[in-house]
Design a protein that fits this description.
By secondary structure, this protein is of the alpha+beta class.
Length: 245
């Protein structure tokens, strides 16, 4: 069995979903694992979306042990890990973090992250990062970006190694010092902080000012009368009002 950054690693030619494959591997071995695949045929995104998986990009899933009460903060930390990875390969890029854990470069989406329950006390973090291509997401409302188009000249294994190293370093900070430093790191790079936004949820849209995140990583939405804690949803910049002539 191969290892990467000290973690058991399986690299597949093709699979439906690396999240599905890492679940099976972790359930068998009962230890943290990483699964990557050159091609993914049924990649999953957050909130039931699919993830377009073109060859040459990174599709990886990692299992780790965590308590449920830590999960929302780990979601925030995952975005920082991807941001730092993009910064390493593209140090001049304009990178922002869009709640909860999207990474934008020049306003365009370069990655997707999905957390799912793993076997026993394990959780799964699935990450896709555009490297050699950045597929058109159509009606999703997102433009896309890719590392090599930004001048990185790298490959999926180099990106994988850097991502795992960043994730482990951030987890160490969290375990040793708590969430405060990481929360501030996230806020320092937050997309649309203190600006009007819309949160799209399953059956509802909510508008207000993006007032930051709380100590659990939940979004704070100020509607002028109160500040509401948002646990889940998709964040968009509020549409600009048209002025009368």
């Amino acid at each position: 069995m191969n290892k990467i950054n000290g973690i058991i690693w399986q690299d597949k030619e093709t699979c439906e979903s690396t999240n599905t494959e890492v679940y099976k591997l972790c359930n068998e071995l009962k230890v943290p694992c990483v699964v990557t695949s050159k091609v993914q045929t049924k990649g999953r995104g957050r909130r039931g979306h699919s993830w377009v998986s073109e060859s040459g990009n990174l599709f990886m899933s990692m299992t780790f042990e965590a308590e449920l009460h830590d999960l929302s903060r780990l979601v925030i930390i995952s975005g920082i890990a991807v941001m730092q990875t993009v910064q390493f390969f593209c140090p001049q890029a304009d990178i922002k973090l869009k709640w909860p854990n999207d990474v934008l470069v020049g306003g365009a989406k370069i990655s997707g992250i999905l957390f799912e329950r793993g076997p026993a006390d394990f959780w799964i973090m699935g990450v896709g990062i555009n490297i050699v291509s950045h597929p058109d997401l159509g009606a999703s409302g997102y433009a896309t970006a890719g590392l090599n188009a930004l001048g990185a000249n790298t490959d999926r294994i180099a990106v994988l190694k850097k991502l795992i190293a960043n994730w482990n370093a951030l987890l160490y900070i969290y375990q040793q010092e708590g969430f405060a430093k990481l929360k501030q790191m996230w806020l320092n790079n937050a997309y649309n902080l203190n600006k009007p936004i819309v949160i799209k949820q399953e059956n509802n849209d909510k508008s207000g000012i993006f007032a930051g995140i709380d100590d659990n990583g939940c979004l704070l939405l100020n509607n002028g009368h109160k500040t509401e804690v948002i646990i889940a949803g998709d964040m968009f910049a509020a549409p600009k009002e048209e002025k009368d002539d």
